[in-house]
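Hi P.,

Sorry for the delay on this. The queue was packed all week, but I finally got your sequence through. Input first:
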Amino acid sequence: MLRRLLASLNRIPGVRGASVVDEHGRMRASLVGEQDENVFSSEIPLALRQANELSKDAGIGSIDQIWATGSNGRVGIASMAAGASLVIVCNRESALGRLRHEVGRSRPTMKELI
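Then the structure:
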């Protein structure tokens, strides 16, 4: 069922892959290539810890979503239930507003599945 939810996110124009990673960097479900899995498992927990420290220091509350845009695309990380994170890799031209909306919309369902 979790893979089905990721597949629905994968159908959004511009999305190249989606994964759910636990707080230790282990893949719970994934629709990305093996190379991306290795990057996610080592970098996502670190990025979230640093973002949470920054938001705490800035007094803006806990992290909901992080989006990074590079010359060749975007990566989004969203906090989910039980310390898990949703990671989305997409093209640079993808509609960021729609992606943010879909992440928020999928959160209740994902909470039930994690």
